[in-house]
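Example 3.2
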Amino acid sequence: MSGLVRLSMSLDRELNDRLERMQREGKYASRSDLFRDLIRSREVAQAWEGDGEALGTITLIYDHDNRTVSRRLTHVQHHHHGAVLATTHVHLDEHVCAEMIMVRGAASEIRHLADELGHQKGVLHSALAVSSTGKALTGKRPPHTHHHSHKAGGHAHP
């Protein structure tokens, strides 16, 4: 038996036209692909709204001629070492650097870290790109972890 489910729905013409435009502009092969993407995007948004476990990338643009900005950014990241997964540093020109920091944790913790980094003196611009750890997107549930006995014919089975 297939794991696919067929749906039928009704939309007013204007909404349907917008849907078709989204499919065309997004270069989706089918409406099904578009709907899958929309559903997954909504699940990511809900994880962030509900302060669930999330993944994010904080991008910072800063002037490295400010002598203390690099040290302060590193200090903040060390303070949040449990959330920081990786940092990439790029020299954009003789004076300006970009740093991309991949982080994982509660959405509120990630927002707090992004704000703290972005408010450092010498940071010219900061942005937070939000994503998911992927757990909710796969539709798979975590494995059953508790153990108990089932009695059958007077014998316990693990």
